[in-house]
Write a structure and sequence with these properties.
With 127 residues, the protein is an alpha+beta fold. It has a domain of 78 residues. Helices cover 21% and strands 12% of the residues. It contains four helices and three strands. It has a three-stranded antiparallel sheet with strand order 1-2-3. β1 and β2 form a beta hairpin. This is NADH:ubiquinone oxidoreductase subunit NDUFA12. It comes from Sphingomonas telluris. Pfam families: NDUFA12.
C-alpha cells in the first residue's frame, strides 16, 4: 500500500491519527490469522478495537474476536473459548461486490441464461 493511501484513507487500515492514538492509549492483546491486530485501552480495559490488515471490513474479523470486541467474552478468545472442531469451517469474509460473489443463473454479470419458467410462476399483469 502506498504512502498516500495509508496517510489519507481510513478504509485501508489505520490512519496516522489512529496509529498515534493506539500507540499512546492502547495495549496490543493479539493478532488473528488474517493479520488484524487487536487492542484494549491501557486505562479503560473495556475499550477494545481492531487495526485491520487491509480493507476495513467487519466481516474480516473472525467470530471469536468479534465476541471479544463486543464484550461478549471478557478474556481473550484463545483463553476463554474451546478450540475449533475438525468439522467446523473457517469463517469467510463477505464477498458481496467482488468477483467471487454468488451470481445466480441469468445474472448479467455471469453471462448465462436464466432457466425457463416451469409453470409454477404466474406473472402479474395490471388490470
Amino acid at each position: 500500500m502506498g504512502f498516500l493511501a495509508r496517510t489519507f484513507t481510513w478504509w485501508n487500515g489505520a490512519t496516522w491519527g489512529t496509529g498515534l492514538w493506539t500507540r499512546r492509549h492502547g495495549e496490543k492483546v493479539g493478532t488473528d490469522d488474517a493479520g488484524n491486530v487487536y487492542y484494549r485501552g491501557k486505562k479503560n480495559l473495556a475499550s477494545r478495537w481492531v487495526i485491520y490488515n487491509g480493507p476495513n471490513d467487519g466481516s474480516r474479523v473472525p467470530p471469536e474476536w468479534q465476541a471479544w470486541l463486543k464484550g461478549t467474552i471478557d478474556d481473550l478468545p484463545d483463553e476463554s473459548l474451546p478450540p475449533r472442531r475438525k468439522f467446523e469451517k473457517k469463517p469467510e469474509v463477505n464477498l458481496t461486490g467482488t468477483m467471487a460473489a454468488f451470481r445466480p443463473d441469468g445474472s448479467l454479470s455471469k453471462g448465462s441464461i436464466r432457466p425457463a419458467a416451469t409453470g409454477d410462476y404466474q406473472p402479474w399483469t395490471p388490470e
